[in-house]
Amino acid sequence: MLRKARTTEAGLLTEISFASKRYWLYPDEYLHVWKDELTITADYIENNDVCVIENNGSVVGYYSIVFLKKPMECAQVILDKGYWLEHMFLVPQVIGSGLGRILFEHIVSRCTQKQIATLRILADPHAKGFYEKMGCIYKKDIPSTIAGRSTPLLLLRSTLIKSIS
After folding, report:
1. Reported confidence tier of residue 75, pLDDT bands at 50, 70, 90
2. Which residues, at least 6 apart from 98, have a Cβ–Cβ distance to it below 8 Å?
3. What separation in angstroms does the CA of 154 have from each of 11, 43, 78, 82, 123?
4. Which CATH number does the domain housing residue 70 bear?
5. What domain range includes position 101?
6. For 95-106, how does the pLDDT look when each residue is reduced to its tens digit (9 = 90+)?
7. pLDDT at 76 (0 to 100)
């Protein structure tokens, strides 16, 4: 089941963020750098489009779509204004189960409902193949918030959004 996240689930979504990153065996130093990025608050849920996926009555993942009203600097890179998929995380136990595809198809549906022509995605390098499999277009690697590391920038375009929905 997919539904809007509740503000009371902020702590749970934060736990899912960190558990998902740990799945890829990132060192604790990286998790420390990402602490603010991975922490979800009640205000964040209230002010953004945050949706959860449940499996057998338990929340096992979520995504968030945010709108940048103006360009923003992040890791010495300027992020364009517009819509961004800021988070998409699953608990490690369900990675590879098909729930990621279901969650992504819901993202596509939300983009159609909100008439979002382009959704930008700064993906974890481990997730690049997943997003490409879902039809996203790889644009380039950009510097990460971790020195010496890069992260792929992908786009979900309106033509794909319309064809999937």
Report:
1. low
2. none
3. 28, 27, 15, 14, 7
4. 3.40.630.30
5. 2-164
6. 999 999 999 999
7. 67
Cβ-proximal residues to 128 (8 Å cutoff; 6+ apart), any chain: 138, 152, 154
Spatial distance between the Cα atoms of 134 and 129, rounded to a whole number of angstroms:
9
Q: Which helix (H) or strand (E) holds 48?
A: none
Q: What is the pLDDT of residue 159?
A: 53
Residue 28, Cβ neighbours under 10 Å: how many?
8
Tens-digit pLDDT profile for residues 30-57: 999 999 999 999 999 999 999 999 999 9
More confident residue, 164 or 1: 1
Q: CA 147 to CA 145: how far, in whole Å?
A: 6
What pLDDT shows up at residue 164?
A: 45
Q: How far apart are CA 70 and CA 78, in angstroms?
A: 10
Count of domains forming the chain: 1
Burial of 1 (0-12, 13-18, 19+ CB in 10 A): exposed
| HSE-up (13 A, CA, CB side) for residue 64 | 25
Handedness of CA 154, 70, 68, 151 (dihedral sign): positive
